[in-house]
Write a structure and sequence with these properties.
2 domains; seven-stranded mixed β-sheet; alpha/beta; Spore Coat Polysaccharide Biosynthesis Protein SpsA, Chain A; transmembrane
């Protein structure tokens, strides 16, 4: 009688354990589906020529908003790629907040070198919200001449046909075309290797999967959008209350029936500032934004990490099927590693600028440090951006914290 009572008391605990085990295995399977979809979709979608627009109509003009703050070793070469693009009609609107910013000299030198390119410098910005990037760009945005707006960060390089590729992806029902974040091959060292591995594996896996499934994955480092649609939402200044303005701009387009799409060419980030600490601070800042915008990220994002979900699935398989957990875990890591190498190779579309041993070290470092950086983001929710500090509220709205 006593033993039956003990068994009845243990039943809820057993059911709970089995429930967690089933959840972990289902989530593990879902991640593998996304992983495989990203590989196949990346092979299908990236680095392919799209059907040109009708020759009966000229290509639409594009206004390029280029927010700048300070200089680095690659700024000149990055900006120069925008003056040499093969596109019939565009203007470059440089946005600088401080009249003493050394970036102004860099831009003026390029304006003299390429006098036939339509370009202008806007200094001072306008205070329309807490987002410094929006404040910096808004003046140029309001003065833009064309209906297509390209927002492009200072560290982005362009190929001659990149803008053409983005415009050709802007079909009739598409309101935004954005480039999937990746990196250039012009920077040596472990930090550059780490960045390329992250953007070519962990980031691109979710990015490609989300784009295929129609989930908002928009990032604003290189994004082309219809100005008329943005104006219907209140213009660029409407999103000055958010730090993650790119996510909410895309959300407003989707909510109003427009589609978003990724370009076939990934965005080539080529910032002259490239070190591990800066990169990890960037990843932590993005994690804080995701947590504030989508609180479910607190649970789901750590579980999406290879090492974490592998351990959970190994325990679940041991409980449900009596499989050897260590063998399961090691096979999981090995196959995940090989799939990541395959995905990175697809996105690179050529030889990688580092050896396979460097990939092994960089991949392990990224996978082991990922959960720690996310935990760090939860423990310190305030965001430091440039020389400012911001506090986020649930829903993604931001408030600047004055010293």
């Amino acid at each position: 009688m006593l033993s039956s009572l003990v068994l009845r008391l243990q039943d809820p605990m057993i059911y709970t354990l089995y429930g967690f085990a089933i959840f972990f295995l289902v989530f593990w399977c879902a991640l593998w589906i996304i992983h495989l979809l990203a590989i196949f979709y990346g092979k299908y979608r990236l680095h392919r020529k799209v059907k040109p627009l009708s020759t009966d109509e000229p290509y639409p003009g594009v206004s390029i908003l280029k927010p700048l703050m300070g200089t680095d070793a690659h700024l000149v070469s990055n900006l120069e790629t925008f003056f040499t693009m093969n596109y019939p009609m565009y203007e470059i609107l440089f946005c600088v907040e401080d009249a003493k910013d050394p970036a102004i000299e860099v831009v003026n030198a390029l304006l003299k070198k390429y006098p036939n390119v339509q370009a202008e410098v806007f200094i001072g910005g306008s205070n329309v919200g807490v987002n410094p990037k929006i404040n910096n760009m808004n003046q140029a945005y309001e003065a833009s001449s064309y209906d297509l707006i390209l927002i492009s960060d200072s560290g982005i390089r362009m190929k001659e046909d990149t803008l053409l590729d983005m415009v050709e992806h802007l079909t009739e029902k598409t309101g935004i075309v954005h480039q999937m974040p990746f990196t250039s091959d012009f920077r040596p060292g472990f930090a550059a290797t780490l960045e390329k591995i992250y953007f070519g594996t962990a980031q691109s896996r979710m990015y490609l999967g989300a784009d295929l499934l129609g989930v908002n994955c928009h990032t604003g480092m290189s994004t082309l959008m219809r100005k008329t649609v943005l104006e219907d939402q209140g213009g660029l200044k409407k999103f000055g209350c958010y730090l993650a303005e790119d996510f909410f701009i895309a959300k407003s387009f989707l909510d109003n029936g427009w589609k978003t799409a990724i370009s076939s060419q990934p965005a080539l980030q080529n910032s002259g500032i490239c070190d591990v600490n800066s990169f990890q601070a960037r990843l932590t800042r993005w994690a804080k934004l995701r947590v504030a915008m989508l609180p479910t990220v607190i649970i789901l994002e750590p579980l999406s990490e290879c090492m974490v979900i592998g351990a959970c699935a190994a325990w679940a398989a041991s409980l449900l099927f009596r499989w050897e957990p260590l063998v399961f875990y090691l096979i999981h890591i090995l196959v995940w590693f090989l799939c990541d190498w395959m995905l990175l190779s697809i996105i690179q579309n050529g030889s990688l600028p580092f050896k396979r041993f460097d990939f092994i070290i960089g991949w392990l470092f990224r996978e082991l440090s990922g959960p720690y950086l996310f935990l760090l983001a939860l423990c310190h929710p305030e965001i430091k951006w440039r020389n400012r500090v911001f506090k986020l509220t649930w829903g993604g709205m931001a408030q600047e914290v004055k010293p």
